[in-house]
Specification:
57% helix; 88 residues; mainly alpha
Length: 88
């Protein structure tokens, strides 16, 4: 949070002077309404559709088995590419 010191009198230097109520500024800037809307949205239940058995079967058929060798080759290629980017 950022604070602005407004010195009304040179003798009051270092003293805190309240120029606005934090709650009033919060409401005036619209943050309270936004927070209330966010809380309402968080409470709202959003239905997530289930995957049909036919789609699940097709999805299972579409998968490609990847072994540890494939993962290591991809990681090595990514590392070499990163080194070449730094070197150039």
């Amino acid at each position: 949070m950022c604070y602005i010191d407004i010195i009304l009198d040179a003798d009051e230097d270092g003293e805190a002077n309240t120029i606005a109520d934090e709650e009033q500024v919060y409401v005036a800037m619209g943050f309270k309404v936004a927070d209330e809307r966010g809380e309402e949205a968080a409470r709202e239940k959003i239905p997530i559709p289930a995957m049909s058995s036919e789609l699940e079967k097709r999805d299972g058929e579409a998968t490609i088995p990847i072994g540890i060798g494939t993962i290591l080759i991809c990681l090595l290629a990514h590392t070499i590419h990163a080194w070449l980017q730094v070197a150039s």
